[in-house]
Write a structure and sequence with these properties.
By secondary structure, this protein is of the alpha/beta class. It folds into four domains: 4-224, no CATH class; 232-314, no CATH class; 335-430, no CATH class; 442-580, no CATH class. 56% of the residues lie in helices and 8% in strands. The protein has 27 helices and ten strands. A hairpin with a 3-residue loop joins β5 and β6.
C-alpha cells in the first residue's frame, strides 16, 4: 500500500528556495486558464508583502502551491494551484532586475542579501532554463518571454483598459502587472527596495505540495480550497485532447502547430457560443457525456470522457462537441417553443437537455415530439413529489433508445412505465387539487398555462425573477375589507391557497394589488393603480386579463364570488389537463 509521502510531499520553502533551488522549475499546463490578475490582485499582493516587511513580521506565509509531476519525462512540475502568484512574482523579479540594476550592490557578502545574481537566477536557471513556462496556449510562452523574461521591463507603460479586457490576450495583463510594479518601485528608495527583496526572498514562505499525479493534485486542491475548484473537467479534457494531438503529430512540428491552432480556434469558438448560456462549459461536458454513454457514469466526467476519446481523432472530437454546442444554442437556448420554455423551469436540468441534445445530435426522426413528452414526464414527477432517483434511470434509458433510433412509441412506453411503476399520476392529481401556492412547481405551472393561453406566434419566455409573483385574487387579509364580506372563512379555507384563487402578476402590480378590495385589484390589473406612471398598461398575462374581462362584462356582478372561484377552478382543470395530457376532473 502506498504511503501518503508517495502520493504527496509538502515542503516549507522560502521564496528564495521556491525559485532558486535546483528543482524550482515550473510549467503552467494547458488545462489551466491564462494569466488573469488585474490591478486589485497585484496591488494586494504588493501591499501584503510590504506591510509584513514594515511590521517586521518574522515569517510571512504567502499560501500554498500545489504541483504535480507531469506524465512526460520532464524536470518541470505542473502547477495545479498557484499559477497566478508564481507568474506575478516572476514579473516582479523581472521589473526589479531592470529597474534596480544596482540592487544591494553596496552590501557585503551575506547569504541573506539579494543581489542581481539572485534575482536573475530566480528568473532563468543557469542562464539557460526559464524557471516558469506557460503552456496555456502556444502563444502565451512566447509573449511572456518577449515581454517579460527577455525584455527591458523598465520601458513598459500601462496598457489601455480596452486591451486589458481581452481575456484571450494575457500579454496585456503581463504588461499591466509589470507597469504596476514599476510604479510601486519608483515610489520607494533603492535602499527600501533592497531591504524589501531581502525580506521577500528570506522571510516570506510558501508550502509547496508536490503530488505524484495530476489527478491527485486536483483532488487535493479541491479539498484545500473552499473557494471552489478553478480547474474544471473541461480544462482537463482540453489538456487530454491537446496531448493526443501532440502524440499524433509530434514528429511533424509544422503540422503540429497547425493542428493545435485549429483545435484552439474550435475550442475558443465553443466557449464564445456558450458564453450567454446559464451553463458553464463543464456543465455542457456533463450533457455530452450523458449523450456519449447513454447510461449512468461510474466515474468522474474527465475519467469517463478521456476513456471515450482515447482512440478518437482529437480534431474529430472537437468538431463533434462544437456541433453539440451548436444544437444547444439553436434548439434550447434560442428556442421559441412553449414546451422548451417550460423545461427551463425544471430542477433536473441535465437530463432533459441531454435527451433533447442526443436527439438533435443523432438526427432522431421524432425529435419534434420529444419536448412535449419530456415536459409531461418531468412535471408530473415534480408535482407528485418525486426525487431525482425516480427519473434518473428512465432518463438514461431514453437517451439510449434515441441513439438506437427507436420508434416514438417505444419512448412513450418508457415514460408511461415509469409513471405507472412509481405511482406518479394519482400523487400528481392529488397535489394539483390541494393547496399549491407554496409548492416549488406552482409558479412554473401557471407560466405553462400562460403559454397555452397566448398567441403561439408571439411567445416570449417568462423568466422566474423576483418580479414575477403568484397573486391571490381573494387576498389573505380579505376579512379586513367590507367588499370581501361575501367570502366566508370556510370558503377561503377551501379555496384560498388553491389554483382557483391564483394568477400571475409582475412585481410592482403585485405590490399594489395584494391586500385590497376587488375593484382596486382590477384597476391595478388594468394599469390604473395608485402609481399609474409605473403601471400604465393592462397586465401582460392573458390568464390575468381574463379576470379583467369578466369584471368589465359584469359576469359576476363586478365581484369575485364563489361562482367566479368555481369557474376559475374548472378553467384550471381544463387547462392543466391539456397542458400535461392528464384527466384532472373538478369535484
Amino acid at each position: 500500500m502506498s504511503s501518503a509521502s508517495d502520493i504527496f510531499t509538502p515542503h516549507s520553502l522560502t521564496i528564495k528556495q521556491l525559485f532558486n533551488n535546483a528543482d524550482a522549475l515550473y510549467q503552467i499546463p494547458r488545462y489551466q486558464r491564462p494569466y488573469k490578475w488585474s490591478d486589485e490582485q497585484v496591488e494586494k499582493l504588493w501591499d501584503d508583502i510590504t506591510e509584513a516587511y514594515e511590521n517586521n513580521t518574522e515569517s510571512y506565509f504567502l499560501g500554498s502551491i500545489i504541483t504535480a509531476a507531469p506524465k512526460e519525462n520532464s524536470s518541470y512540475r505542473d502547477v495545479v494551484d498557484g499559477q497566478q502568484r508564481l507568474t506575478t512574482l516572476m514579473i516582479l523579479f523581472a521589473v526589479v532586475r531592470d529597474v534596480c540594476p544596482d540592487l544591494n550592490a553596496a552590501e557585503g557578502a551575506d547569504p541573506q542579501v539579494v543581489k542581481q545574481r539572485v534575482i536573475k537566477q530566480a528568473i532563468v536557471a543557469d542562464e539557460e532554463f526559464n524557471r516558469l513556462k506557460l503552456y496555456t496556449h502556444i502563444q502565451h510562452q512566447t509573449d511572456f518571454e518577449q515581454l517579460i523574461v527577455n525584455a527591458n521591463t523598465s520601458l513598459i507603460e500601462k496598457p489601455k483598459k480596452a486591451l486589458l479586457q481581452q481575456d484571450e490576450s494575457p500579454k496585456y495583463k503581463f504588461l499591466n502587472t509589470a507597469a504596476i510594479f514599476k510604479a510601486k518601485i519608483a515610489e520607494r528608495s533603492p535602499a527600501y527596495i533592497g531591504a524589501l527583496m531581502n525580506y521577500l526572498f528570506n522571510a516570506v514562505r510558501v508550502i509547496r505540495i508536490d503530488c505524484s499525479s495530476k489527478e491527485f493534485a486536483i483532488k487535493l486542491f479541491q479539498v484545500l480550497n473552499d473557494r471552489g475548484l478553478d480547474l474544471s473537467s473541461a480544462d482537463l479534457i482540453k489538456s487530454f485532447l491537446i496531448q493526443n494531438i501532440e502524440a499524433k503529430y509530434g514528429q511533424q512540428p509544422d503540422l503540429l502547430a497547425i493542428k493545435e491552432n485549429h483545435f484552439m480556434q474550435e475550442w475558443n469558438a465553443i466557449e464564445q457560443t456558450i458564453a450567454p448560456f446559464n451553463d458553464h462549459l463543464n456543465d455542457v461536458f456533463v450533457l455530452y457525456l450523458y449523450y456519449c454513454l447513454g447510461s449512468n457514469p461510474k466515474r468522474s466526467v474527465y475519467d469517463e470522457l478521456s476513456a471515450v476519446f482515447k482512440s478518437q481523432d482529437p480534431l474529430m472530437v472537437i468538431a463533434d462537441i462544437k456541433q453539440f454546442v451548436s444544437h444547444y444554442k439553436q434548439h434550447l437556448w434560442e428556442a421559441t417553443d412553449e414546451h422548451i420554455y417550460a423545461l427551463w423551469y425544471l430542477r433536473w436540468q441535465s437530463y432533459w437537455k441531454s435527451i433533447l441534445l442526443t436527439a438533435y445530435q443523432t438526427n432522431y426522426t421524432h425529435a419534434k415530439a420529444l419536448p412535449k413528452l419530456l415536459k409531461r414526464f418531468y412535471y408530473l414527477n415534480w408535482i407528485a413529489g418525486k426525487t431525482l432517483s425516480s427519473v434518473k434511470q428512465t432518463s438514461f434509458n431514453l437517451i439510449a433508445e434515441i441513439k438506437k433510433g427507436s420508434a416514438i412509441e417505444a419512448i412513450q412506453a418508457l415514460v408511461e412505465q415509469q409513471l405507472s411503476t412509481h405511482h406518479v399520476m394519482p400523487l400528481a392529481l392529488e397535489a394539483l387539487k390541494g393547496d399549491l401556492y407554496k409548492e416549488s412547481w406552482c409558479k412554473a405551472l401557471f407560466c405553462m398555462l400562460e403559454y397555452n393561453a397566448s398567441d403561439k406566434s408571439k411567445l416570449l419566455f417568462i423568466p422566474h425573477t423576483q418580479d414575477l409573483h403568484l397573486e391571490h385574487i381573494v387576498p389573505n387579509k380579505y376579512a379586513n375589507f367590507t367588499e370581501w364580506q361575501h367570502i366566508s372563512p370556510e370558503l377561503f379555507a377551501k379555496w384560498g391557497q388553491s389554483a382557483a384563487n391564483l394568477t400571475l402578476l409582475s412585481g410592482s402590480k403585485n405590490i399594489e394589488a395584494s391586500d385590497n378590495p376587488f375593484h382596486i385589484k382590477v384597476d391595478v390589473y388594468k394599469g390604473l393603480g395608485l402609481h399609474q406612471h409605473k403601471n400604465d398598461k393592462v397586465t401582460a398575462f392573458m390568464i390575468t386579463q381574463s379576470i379583467v374581462k369578466a369584471y368589465d362584462q359584469g359576469t359576476y356582478q363586478k365581484t369575485w364570488n364563489e361562482q367566479a372561484i368555481l369557474d376559475r377552478w374548472h378553467w384550471f382543470c381544463r387547462e392543466v389537463s391539456e397542458v400535461l395530457d392528464i384527466n384532472l376532473q373538478p369535484e
